[in-house]
Amino acid sequence: MSGRRRTRAPKRVRSVIGDQPAFSQPRRSLPPRELLDPEQIERIHEASLRVLAETGMDFLHPTALKMWSEAGCKVDGERVRFDPALITELVSHAPAHFTLHGRDASRNLEIGGDWLAYSSVASAPNYVGLDGERRTGDRAGFQDLLKIGQMLNTVHVFGGYPVEPVDLHASVRHLECAYDAHTLSDKPFHIYSLGRQRNLDGIEMARISRGIDDETLDNEPSLTTIINASSPLKYDEPMLEGILQMSARNQVVVITPFTLAGAMAPITLGGALVQQNAEALAGMAFTQLVRKGAPVMYGGFTSNVDMRSGSPAFGTPEYAKAAIAGGQLARRYGVPYRSSNVSASNAVDAQAGYESMLALWGAIEGGVNFLMHGAGWMEGGLHASYAKMVMDADLLHMVNAFLTPIDTSDDALAVDAIAAVGPAGHFFGEAHTQARYTSEFYGPMVSDWRNWETWTEGGSPIASERATKAAAEILENYEPPAIADGVKEELRDFVDRRIAEGGVKTDY
User: Fold this and answer.
1) What is the spatial distance between Cα 205 and Cα 157, in angstroms, rounded to a whole number?
2) Is 34 strand, coil or helix?
3) Contact, 91 vs 285, CB < 8 A?
4) d(CA 495, CA 503)
5) What is the CATH number that goes with domain 2-32+92-403?
6) Element (H or E) spanning 185, and its range?
7) Is the separation of the CB atoms in 332 and 300 below 8 Å?
């Protein structure tokens, strides 16, 4: 089936949203920032190993407990205490770099090193669409957000459901969502680790979508899953089942402790980082216990809470600092790093912009390889926004441009152009300028650089209004990606068969 694959270049969207740069994966030309010195990193490392050896972690899965016991760990009920040497040895097998494969080979992503990959918003329970109304997640909103993410060239991957479509019953939701994702987009998709059968279904649908056999899938990571520690110091059964199934098939596991300083982790940033690191090390080690060499990422998501309400705070200085330190720890273990673009703002306003920019910059400075929630996250993750997806796409374009090296070739240094213009001239009409106008600049989707007099004509729309208009145009211009002959039908047949079998068991 792979021989029948048809490919098509991504549609270029013009007019209000400008002319996007073509889909491509950026690389970081600047070295990551070192917020902590080597001695501080080693202190966090040693403290993390001490936590794992003395306090240990709860693993709520009988197979995991048996595997740890056979590996020589001290297992007392559900509590596992680890030999530091075992943790270090297992983590050493995790790859520093791997390729995440898309349905179309042009969507393949390199994960690790100086490569960056940006995910759309994921896992929001609500969304705000074109009319500005906040709604509980449904399939219509889920499909719209998939379409926007497919058309935005700065979105590389879907790290989960952009919004949870609760109008689909939980027993079959994973099937219909994967069908939509594999047919409305050709970018890599995600599995939620919420039980063994959901993992198996998602893995099989990824195989069908790519038109490959099981052996090829096992050699070519094509899916991601997020594994959250139930902080503090616990991995529950669904998360561990996700590692067992995904790592066994050589698919990508992103270990992400959910450590909020003052709530599920110590209130000091140093203490929160120790707990994050201990939980991450235990999770990464388990992936390698399942299958040495299986792809895994170190996820950092440490932030603080508003101690007046207990609500998570995002886009704060503490979050940015933790993001940078998390990247240093990931590099300490030689594995790719996941961070996030986040904001706690309820509206697409100045707060949303500056919190996202600070969080994004912390991730970039931290050396992020896989940026979760890169476009569309709002309200601390409680809703996804069409307008914010477009605005975040602008932010990501700006980051990409910033990370592009300065060209110092003879032609770029422009000595001849300067001589041709001479004193008191201008460069607007110079051939050196005109040759680069379309290749080095793009029309931003939201930014509006007109002067005040022309900008105020027609009601002076604010950024969120312009972004909403751009989102509407993206949806109007949406085109489904090409798909190999028969694959869509095979996916539909699989979904229909699994639905007829009852999907997965639920409590309702």
Assistant:
1) 17
2) coil
3) yes
4) 9
5) 3.20.20.480
6) none
7) no
